[in-house]
């Protein structure tokens, strides 16, 4: 076991951006109303953990492991998840802000984004097969060579996805969002 091993611990209202974050192995831990903004999480592993009402904006994620981690009501602006470990990478986001985050080339099958803001978020070459974007704002999000097979965009808003550049096999969309797939063709789609 690593020197810093923490299990089944709850952390409340701690400002790790001021005092520094103790790198380690965290299992079944809960972080509530904690500030990690700009903190260095390098090399830490989070397994079966939950972050609630936390600010992780611009946190350093190099070689960080997220395995079965849920973020609820969190602020994750500019976070480069693309520098995380890919082994068993599994996350879920609920009512969180992920503007300008990067998930480039990450394995993210079945990832759930519910009621999130993903403005300008980069999904280039990510594997989002069967991912769910429920009530999520994707304005300016980048999808390039992204696997979106079976993904659910039925209640997502403001996305622009090029069907010729991304795998959309069996992805689900609502009729009102077709403009997000046809934008590059400059068509005028009018409702009744």
Give an overview of the whole structure.
By secondary structure, this protein is mainly β. The protein folds into two domains: 93 residues, Pectate Lyase C-like; 90 residues, Pectate Lyase C-like (3 Solenoid), CATH 2.160.20. The chain has two helices and ten strands; from the N terminus they run ββαββββββββα. It is elongated. The mean pLDDT is 94.
Query: Average pLDDT value?
Result: 94
How many separate helices? 2
Number of domains in the coordinates? 2
How much helical structure, as a percent, in the residues? Answer: under 10%
The counted number of beta strands is 10
Q: If classified by CATH, what would the architecture of the largest domain be?
A: 3 Solenoid
Give the overall shape, derived from the CA principal axes.
elongated
**Name of the CATH first level of the largest domain:** Mainly Beta
| Terminus-to-terminus distance | 63 Å
The CATH topology assignment of the largest domain is Pectate Lyase C-like
Order of helices and strands: EEHEEEEEEEEH
Largest sheet entry:
10 strands, parallel
Low-confidence stretches are none
């Amino acid at each position: 076991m690593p020197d810093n091993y923490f299990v089944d611990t709850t952390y409340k209202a701690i400002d790790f951006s001021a005092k520094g974050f103790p790198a380690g192995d965290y299992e079944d831990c809960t972080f509530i109303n904690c500030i990690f903004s700009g903190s260095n999480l390098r090399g830490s592993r989070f397994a079966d953990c939950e972050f609630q009402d936390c600010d992780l904006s611009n946190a350093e994620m190099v070689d960080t492991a997220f395995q079965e981690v849920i973020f609820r009501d969190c602020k994750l602006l500019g976070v480069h998840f693309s520098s995380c470990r890919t082994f068993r990478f599994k996350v879920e986001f609920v009512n969180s802000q992920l503007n300008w985050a990067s998930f480039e080339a990450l394995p993210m099958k079945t990832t759930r984004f519910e009621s999130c803001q993903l403005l300008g978020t980069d999904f280039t070459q990510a594997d989002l097969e069967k991912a769910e974007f429920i009530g999520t704002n994707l304005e300016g999000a980048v999808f390039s060579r992204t696997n979106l097979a079976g993904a659910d965009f039925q209640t997502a808003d403001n996305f622009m996805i090029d069907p010729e550049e991304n795998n959309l096999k069996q992805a689900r969309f609502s009729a009102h969002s077709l403009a997000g797939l046809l934008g590059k063709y400059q068509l005028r789609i009018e409702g009744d």
